[in-house]
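Saturday, quiet lab. Running sequence design on the structure tokens for the scaffold JK sent over.
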């Protein structure tokens, strides 16, 4: 399961929208996977471990709703950067920021299948197994998620050109 650690973190990061929470979730998911490894019936280990990560994310989200917390964004409040450094970082990240923002705006049911297909390059069958969905639902959500991404990016580009 170790070779799938990056994929597990990537999925958790996109589902939680927070790198520190994603790290905690992946750690918890791998502990669960280790504890319940006897339930693994063979097949694709990546799909199985991503299913564990996905379920851990949903458990975490339920827990988070119960105990709401305020997050502190160090980048917004860090006064140590000079204006030139900030401008350089903005220019370097400008190309991906719009797409990332649009991906984060997707509803979680679309975001998870888009991340597993486009970023993790999983097959429809493996996504269906990991998300516990029929393959047709995976394909439908993927299509709708891609369309929403395309519409969002087009809207951003239209706003930039004005």
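Result came back. Writing it out in full:
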């Amino acid at each position: 399961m170790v070779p799938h650690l990056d994929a597990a973190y990537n999925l958790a990061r996109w589902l939680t929208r927070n790198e520190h929470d994603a790290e905690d979730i992946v750690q918890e998911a791998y502990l669960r996977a280790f504890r319940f490894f006897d339930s693994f019936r063979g097949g694709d280990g990546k799909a199985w471990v991503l299913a564990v990560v996905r379920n851990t994310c949903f458990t975490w989200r339920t827990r988070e709703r119960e105990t709401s917390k305020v997050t502190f964004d160090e980048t917004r409040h860090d006064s140590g950067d000079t204006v030139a450094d900030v401008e350089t970082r903005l220019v370097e990240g400008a190309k991906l920021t719009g797409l990332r923002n649009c991906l984060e705006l997707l509803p979680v049911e679309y975001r998870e299948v888009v991340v597993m297909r486009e970023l993790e390059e999983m097959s429809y069958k493996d996504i269906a197994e990991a998300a516990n969905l029929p393959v047709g639902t995976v394909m439908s959500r993927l299509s709708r998620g891609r369309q929403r991404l395309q519409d969002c990016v087009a809207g951003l580009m239209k706003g930039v050109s004005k």
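Notes for JK: The chain has one domain: 2-161. Helices lie at 5-16, 19-35, 45-66, 74-77, 83-105, 108-119, 124-131, 135-161. Ask whether to fix the surface positions before the next round.
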